[in-house]
Every structure is written in structure tokens, then in C-alpha cells.
Design a protein that fits this description.
By secondary structure, this protein is of the alpha+beta class. It has 19 helices and 14 strands. It has four domains: 3-218, no CATH class; 222-310 and 569-605, no CATH class; 313-461, no CATH class; 467-554.
Length: 605
Amino acid sequence: MNLNQNNREINANLDAEIELLRQIRAKLSGELSGQFQLSSQYSFKFEPKISRVYISLFQSGQKSIRFGSTKKTLADTLERIVYKLKQNNRFNDFAVEHPELCRILFEIVVEETSCDINRLKHSASGKNQFDPGLHGLKFSLPGKIGYFMPSDAVVKNIQAVKDVILYLSRRTYIADKTRKKSERIELMKSEPIQFSRIRSAAFITYQNEVFPLFRGYPLPLPTFNRDYLYHSILDANSWLVNHLDENGKFVYFYDPVSDSNTDIDHPKNPHYYNMLRHAGAIISLLQAYELSKQQNYLQSAERAIQYLLETFQDEWINNDDGNKEYICYPMCNRKAKLGGAGIALVALVKYSQWGATEKIDKAMDGLVNHLLSRIDENGEFLTYYIHPNFNHGQPMLNMDDKTKKLLFSFYYPGEAMLGIALYYRYRRSLPKEKEQLLLNKSRLAMDFLIEKRPQKYPELFNRVPDDAWLMQAVEEWVKVDGFDKQSYYDFLYQDATAIIKYMRSREDSPLINIGARSEGVIAAFYAAKARGDNEKADYFISNIIQSVKGLRKTQHTEKSAYAHLYPDKSIGSFSFRMTSQWIRIDSIQHTASLLVRLYQSDEVQ
């Protein structure tokens, strides 16, 4: 049975499952002392050979507890699990008699297929495909069986097969052999351990209701319409508002499962921050203000802008005419990134439409001067102005080809081009000579990015296009006379089509969370619509709508945040991916910005 079809069926009638979870709660609380009264109408079948059953308890402020078992009958299995849960030394910390406080997860294995652990991967097909959240893994050793249930992908923040193998290694003798993660994974793959891929049926309580889980997310999903888009955008930006400190700095990263702010990419630097993503969050807040006119979004953006401006470094440099010219740029982590200046410029240009001041105007002028100075004679952007590991941490006015390649970035030039485009289109009263310089240098840079960069750095390009910022920049630039080149449109349409093919290439998971790339696709939609390429525009927007429908499964809600230690701290935000619960300000910004642009298109009723 097709998994999506199966989930539609189990979502149609949950009376039997609702009663089952009610009895489990009653047994745990002591309200029910007799035997379980089971039904023949469950959407799953209990088969003793494969039907491992787990029951988990979740409650705000408490680490979850669970137990799994398989007996000859479902009734015996449930009795065993209830007995063991009540023996847990933390059981009394859970208010099982109060459904509004304690949530119960019931999960049962419904399918088991032997697999080759060395060939199992997310991108495979057939029996070798492993998609965390859809699939789980079972291992067998003499006298030892271990399970990674599909729902564990959410509960354990699992994203890849290697993470599952590493998790299971702790249940084997391999954990005693080495602490190195890479060695554990290789040992698990080489030792005589039998593995099976499993699927499950899972149900979670929410107050007095019961919901089936699909990839760990409660069904049904919120109704998809304009009202959903509007409230989803505001909920996400309200998270940013509520996680902005008095100094104007956002909570950069949050793991709601462990209640930790330590960024997974910088575990040894718990205070790591990124000004590029900070500026992106400002953009999101300004979009929310534009949409709703609610002052809290604008006020929070202004606080964050003040923090951004405090990171700016000011200089006077010689321009191409040999005259002194004012530049400024954000400095963070001892680096001055091209992309940081580009996104800061985007944020300030957007803010200038409501909060124009001489200080903001000066900052925008300094940023654009800096960005233009980073375009070399061939049109190639120099991606870093200052980097602690190059040129002794001093400004890099020039770069040789080796350094350019070492510091290559897909994103920074597109971010710079978007900032310059918005500056050109919205900055008031530009001097004629400055306007012409800006146009000449931007055309040179755009030609390099679209026509020359793929030839110069072919080995650095990924199979799936990454450069959604450049796609958005192209959308803005083709509105300018002299920039509506066919090669620009070809780039935009080709990359959008490639992203869509990637999103739709998986039968069971066509709607992965690639909100950032989807921003590039919706840029292609707007450009195609403005040009009158209606067939392409229809193709792009129909797939964007399909993608956004899938992105609903990445927004944390009261119903979906059951695995979070403090659910109230994550509600409204967007996670990295379908199963990963991690929250970073850019995962919110990219997804919320995509929703804003879709809302503004009037393509959703």
C-alpha cells in the first residue's frame, strides 16, 4: 500500500485508535484496572513476528520516557509496556491523568524488510532507500535486538542514515570499542550484524484528541489557503520578535529537543553569531510589518538594525578615479564577508522605505561603495575583504586566482547583486555619474556570474542549483533597462526547473524543506509573469505551491512540538528539515520570506 494512501486512510477514521490511547492513559493512571478491550478496526495489524510496540510519554519540562516490547498478543504487549513504564523512576513526574499536560505516543512496526546497511541511503530507491521519519532500522545480534523507530527521527533530531547507525551503535558492543563517530559507523557496517528496514504506524495524543503521525508530524496538516499563509508568516516572525534581546541580537540557534542554544556547527563556540543571517532576519521582520502593519515587527527590526550598524567598520578608500570614497561593511568573527554587506544593504534599503534617516542613507551609500569596489576588472566579486587566515587579517584589495578559488562562495555575489539592485531601484536622487558607474559595474558582474563563472569554476557547482540569492537578484535586475538579456532569463528558468525536478524526484518525499532554494523559484515565477512567459510562470508557481504545502510540516505548532523539552519556546518557528527539530534564524527567514512572496502573488485563495 502506498504510504500516502495509507496515511489518508488512517486519518479518515480514528475511533479505534482514540479508544486505544484512552485505555492506555487509563491504565497508566490507574483508572483502568481490568484488561484492555481491543478492537478489530485498527488501521494496523499486530503480527508477533515483527510488531514491536513502543509507548512514549512527553510533558513540558520533562525528558521523555518510553518502553518497547513484543509479546504473543497486542494485549499482552500493552500490559508489559504499561507495567515497565510505571516502574520507571521518573514515571511520577508525568501527569498521565491530565491529557492537557502529558502526551502519549503509540507506535507499532507494521513492515520489516531485510537490507544491506552499506547500500542504505536517502537518495537510493527501492529497498535501499532510507528516509528518516518514514523508515526506521532494526538490528539483530545473538541475544540482542535494537530498534530505531521512524518517529525517533523527530525525537532524536536525526537527519541521515549515518546518524541512525551511530545512534544504534550505542546499543551494541561497538560503543565500548571506540568513541570516534566515524569508526563506530564503519564497525557497525562491517560487523556481522543483521539489519532490517522498518516502517510503522504511530499516533500521538493532543489534549483529548489523537492524531496519526506522518514523518513524525501530526496529521491532518493545517488547511492550505491565504489565511494559513498569513498566520504562518506572522507566527514565524513573532518567534523572531520574542527571541530578540534588548541589545537587538537574535537567538541565533535553538535545539528545542535539548533546550540548547549551542549551534551544532560550532559546538566549541556556544556564543557564535552570524551577521549575514542576522540581516536576513531583519528582512523577514520588515516583510511581516509590510504585510500586517503591526508595529512590533517594525520596532524589533529597528532594534536589530541598531545592533547591525554597531558592527560596521568605516573606511576611506581610493576609487577608480583616485579620489577618496567612503565605504562601510559589517565585521563579525574577524571577517568582512561580501554577502554580509550585501544582505545588510538589502535590509537597510527595505527599512529606508519606512524609516529613512541620514544615518541609514550614509550606511547604504557606504555599503554600495564597498560592494562595487569588490568587483574586479573581469567582473568577478572578491568574496572577502577581511579574513583572519589570509593576508595577515588585513584588507584584501586584490586576490590571485588561487585565493579566489579558496574563498569561492555561491551565495555572496548573488547577495551583493541583490543589494545593489534594490539600492539602485529605491535610493533617492542618485548622482548621474554614480548611477552610470553602478550600472556599468553591475552589468560586468552579472555577465561574469551568469556567463563566465560556470566555465571558470565548473567543479565547484553542485548538481542542484544553490544560488537562490542570485536568482532573486536577476529578477530585480531584469526590470532595469539594458539588463533584460536572454542569458539572464535562461539562467533563471534553467535553475528554477532544476530545483523543481529535485524537489519532485522522490516518490515518498517530494516536498523536502528547501525554502531558500524555493525563493529562487518564486523569483523565476515573478520574472516570467512580468515578461509574459505565462506557461513557465504557471509551471513555477504550481510547483512552489506544492513545495509550500510540504513546508507546513516544518513549522512547529502546539500539536507538533511534542518532542520539545519546552514546547512554548519553539512554536511558530520553522525547523531545518522535516525531521530535524533544530531552529536557526535563517531557516525561519527563508521560509517566511517565501510565504510572503507567495501570499503577495495572489495565487492562493
